[in-house]
């Protein structure tokens, strides 16, 4: 009869916590779906599917988080959304 030993390893994982911000896009009655989708693709590097889903959520829910990350990365993206006439803010 053979015996197998099971060894349990304890691993310690050090993580750096970074405070992540979000760009929230708000609904308006001015911009078309196509304009919002194209702007999200350009400004937030969304795929066409992601951009379409976000535009639908914004339309029906009133708002949607479209990008999460560090503030320094989000600021120029949010500026692009605002320059395109969309309503957005970093929270």
From TrEMBL:
GO terms for molecular function: peptidase activity. Keywords: Hydrolase, Protease. It comes from the Bacteria. This is ATP-dependent Clp protease adaptor ClpS. Pfam families: ClpS. Residues 20-83 form the Adaptor protein ClpS core domain. One of its GO terms (biological process) is protein catabolic process. InterPro entries: ClpS_core (IPR003769), Ribosomal_bL12_C/ClpS-like (IPR014719).
């Amino acid at each position: 009869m053979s015996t197998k030993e099971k060894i349990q390893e304890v691993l310690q994982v050090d993580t750096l916590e970074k405070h992540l911000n979000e760009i929230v896009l708000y609904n308006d009655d001015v911009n078309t779906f196509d304009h919002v989708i194209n702007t999200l693709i350009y400004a937030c590097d969304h795929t066409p599917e992601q951009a379409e889903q976000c535009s639908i959520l914004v339309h029906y829910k009133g708002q949607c988080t479209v990008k999460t990350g560090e503030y320094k990365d989000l600021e120029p993206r949010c500026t692009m959304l605002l320059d395109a006439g969309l309503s957005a803010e970093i929270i």
